[in-house]
Structure formats: C-alpha cells, structure tokens
Amino acid sequence: MTIATVLGQISTAEFLREYWQKKPLLIRQALPDFISPLSPEELAGLACEEDVPARLILESGGDHPWQLKQGPFTEADFTKLPEDGYSLLVTDCDKLIPDLMSIVERFRFVPDWRIDDLMISYAPPGGSVGAHIDEYDVFLLQGMGRRRWMIEYPVIHREFVPGLDIRLLAEFTPTDEWVLEPGDMLYLPPGVPHHGVAIDPCMTFSIGFRAPLWHELTAGVADRLQLCADQSARYTDPALSLQENPGELTAAMRQQLRAGVRALLNADDALLDRLIAETLSERPLDHAAFYPQQEPLSREELIAELQAGEERLMRTPAARLILVESESTYLAHDGATLALTPAMLPLARLLTRAVFFDSAAVLAAIAAPEAADWLVQLYADGVVQWQPRLLP
Q1: pLDDT tier, 3 (very low <50, low <70, confident <90, very high otherwise)
Q2: Do the Cβ atoms of 298 and 344 come closer than 8 Å?
Q3: Span 254-277, pLDDT tens digits
C-alpha cells in the first residue's frame, strides 16, 4: 500500500522510529498549497445540525471565564458571539463528511484502529482554547489563516486550574514557538503541553489517535470472555466438611474458587486475539448516526453500478474494520467477528487496505457469489457506501 506522505522530508520509518509517541515535530508544508475544503460559515452550519458533536469555548463573553457550550447551535448563538475570545470545535468531521477521509487516509501509516477522528476548529484573531494537554497523539494541520503554537517540552507542568469547564494548565512555560500557515503541521505526542492562538481568522484540522485504557480494553474482553464460557458450570463442594467458623472463607475454599475463576479466564492466544479485535472494533453508541441509511441493493444491481463506473464505493468512516489472518481468518467490525472463507478473503483485504475502492478491484474481489453477497450485506448495513462528492 502506498500512502501519500504528509511528513515532508522525513520518511515514515524515521518518523515512527524517532518521533511517534516520543517528541514533537514541526513539518512545514506537510500539504503544500492546502486550501480548507470547508469555510468558517460551513463549519458553523454543520455545528447547527442535530447529532453533530460541536462545542463553543468562550474565553470571555460568557457567563464565566472559559465557558463550555455544547451544540447543536442556532444561527442566533453565533450572532451573539463576541468579536474575539472564542473557539468553535466540531469533532468527527470525517464521519459527518465522508469525503474528508481523503485527508485522514494520508495518516494511515498508523494502523486504522488507532485513528480516532478529524476535528476542525475555528477561532477569530486572538482566539484559543488555552494551554492544555491531550492524552492522545495529534497532528495539528493548519487549514486557513495563521496560528501561533507554543509548546512546553520537555514537560514541566501538569497541574490544572480548578473549577473550570475545561482542563487548563495552571502553569505553562513555553520552550518552543512557531507560526503555522496553511499546509503547515505540528505533531504532538500524548501529554505535551501546548497553546495555540489565532493570528488571523483561522481553521485548524486536528487528526487525533485513540489509545484504549488498559482497564477498558480488559473489561471489554472480559465481558466477551464470560459469554464464551460454559454458562451452566456452577461451583460445587461435595467434599464439604464442618468448619469452626462458618463466616470464614477457608484456604481450601479459596483454592477451589480461584481454580474455577482461572478456568473461566484461561483463554488461549487465538481466542484473546479475537476478543481483543471485537472490542477494538466496537461501535460507540453515539456513532450510529454516522452510518448511512441506504436502500438495499441486489447482487445484480450492485455489480451493475460498479460496472457503470460512475460512482465508487468507500468504507464508511465510522466503521471500524480489523482483519486478522492467523490459524483462523476473520474480519472484526462493530464488535463482532465474521469467519472468512477463501472466497471472501480478497474482499476483506481490499476493504481493510484502502478507504476509497477502485471499482475494477472491487469487481475482481467479488467474482465469487459468496463474496458478492457479503458485500451486498455490508452495503445494506452501511459499512460501505458510495463516495459522496461534497468536496471540490
């Protein structure tokens, strides 16, 4: 797979070795001559729609300093805004406008399951969201106007101002400062304090990466593991003997209970791999609105559309697809796994290797009726869709 680079003169291998999760990197003209595909007015319009995760952060002019307001908003909300001192942020823009995946796919040198979302923010001159840290990797691509970014690296301060709607650092001592213009990009690993201030009316595209908390991943796997276990197995104690204190959990009982729990948790690597893949591919509840509602197509209709070549299929941005090829081969998506037959494997590889699919490649991958029928089902479920032409 060839990925168009956004790393300037640095190779992907060098970036992953020297910078990823290690230290910040400024990349001038990561996307040369970049022009924002959305205007500030279009971003504000998006923030007025239902089911759009939008926020306004008012440094001043609100009911209290650094007030956080949640969308959806109305046109009146924007007419009441002060001239400066605020920021509008819309998350999951890649899922709201699938064509924006043409930007996100450039960052697929990191595995898909780590990519979280594309957030777009707007701020008037002087606007910011204050000095803060993110607990995830982020690429900050300047989309319009100029923004002054300041960072503190190595990290010195991590204390926060109490009593605010948002987490702001109580102290921030910049060690580096840059002015970013459209197409410039700053990479920050988790936990690096940073502060961006708009010089002009500006838009920033933030590509963020999720990293599951170990306890959350373990909880998801454990929930699935207990469903795989023998649901009829029950504790027994036919050799029970009289004990001096009925309220004591004796050593013998503790040993027997530990053995029962360990037997339930004794999953082999293949089962753990599958349950981890299912957990990582699980669809967040609030992502249901990001799946398109499509009229089902028959196998013949779908093939005819592909052969016509007027539209091309793409993976729905909200869909999390994870391919596992091992002793058993399967595709995990939406929290479940589907065992793949040899006839289905070429389609699974295509669906996970690309975001936008060449129609000829799709037709080759569904030559077997079994694979074609599976693609028909994926289309009906909204996992794949026709690429909307919303961007120039």
Answers
A1: low
A2: no
A3: 999 999 888 888 889 999 999 999
Structure tokens at 204: 């920033």
Q: 1-5, 247-251, 260-264: which has the highest mean pLDDT? A: 247-251
Amino acid letter, 278: E
Among candidate residues 317, 297, 318, the one with its CA nearest the CA of residue 306 = 297
DSSP 106: G
Mean pLDDT across the chain: 94
CA distance 274 to 337: 7
pTM for the predicted model, two decimal places = 0.92
Interatomic CA distance for residues 147 and 197, integer angstroms: 6
Within the chain, residue ranges assigned H as helices are 12-18, 40-47, 75-79, 93-96, 101-104, 214-228, 251-265, 269-280, 299-308, 345-353, 359-365, 369-380
Q: How many Å apart are CA 219 and CA 102, to the nearest integer?
A: 34
Residue environment code for 250-274, b if the CB has 16+ CB neighbours within 10 A, otherwise e: eeeeeeeeeeeeeeeeebeeeeebb
On the CB side of 357, how many CA atoms lie within 13 Å of its CA? 26
Q: How far is CA 385 from CA 316, 342, 345, 355, 357, in A?
A: 6, 24, 20, 11, 10
The dihedral over CA atoms of 351, 354, 360, 361, expressed in degrees to the nearest 10, equals -60
Cα 169 from Cα 157, distance rounded (Å): 7
Mean pLDDT of 110-123: 97
pLDDT of amino acid 341: 97
Give pLDDT tens digits for 28-52.
999 999 999 999 999 999 999 999 9
The closest of 102, 89, 100, 181 to 144, measured between CA atoms, is 181
> Read out DSSP for 327-372?
SSEEEEETTEEEEPPTTTHHHHHHHHH-SB--HHHHHHHT-SHHHH
Torsion angle (degrees, nearest 10) of CA 181, 117, 70, 50: 110
